[in-house]
Amino acid sequence: MSDNQMTVYGNLGTPVDYRESKGFGWAMFRVGSTPRFFDRQLGRWRDLETVWITVKASRTLAQNAAASLKIGDPVVVIGRLRSHTWEDKETREQHRRDVLEAATVCHDLNRGTSTFTRNEPAAAQEQPSSDGEAVAEFESSYTTPAPGTPAEPVPV
């Protein structure tokens, strides 16, 4: 059985709520999408009712979303639509919420600009190099290839 992906274009409607438990992080937020069309009879654009989607991101995507997004930002979210059900322990009432489990979240660059900052690899964050001689040796041995020649891979 295949799993379908869904793409939502809209604006961030709530702050990103980031939480972490036992080293696993996740974030929840809502995206509002208002369909718009040109009404030829009235000669103007008209908005339809806003559709609100709850989005859930996990791990690094959740951390990056919390650090990058603010209310009102135009976003594009790609993910899988899932139905989450639970029972209220006090009232024994059943609840259901459809949630878009995000695989990708980004700013909509049709509507503005953004600046990208790459995450540092986990090993580099945990173990910063304290061996200045090794770093200096690497920097002195690295040479820029001549134009038109392929670059040699750097040993890791």
TrEMBL record:
GO BP, one annotated term: DNA replication
GO CC term, one of those recorded: nucleoid
Region (Disordered): 112-156
SUPFAM superfamilies: Nucleic acid-binding proteins
GO MF annotation terms: single-stranded DNA binding
Source species, domain of life: Bacteria
Keywords for this protein: DNA-binding
Pfam families, per the entry: SSB
Amino acid composition bias (Pro residues), ranges on this chain: 147-156
Designated name of the protein: Single-stranded DNA-binding protein
Taxonomy of the source species: Bacteria, Bacillati, Actinomycetota, Actinomycetes, Propionibacteriales
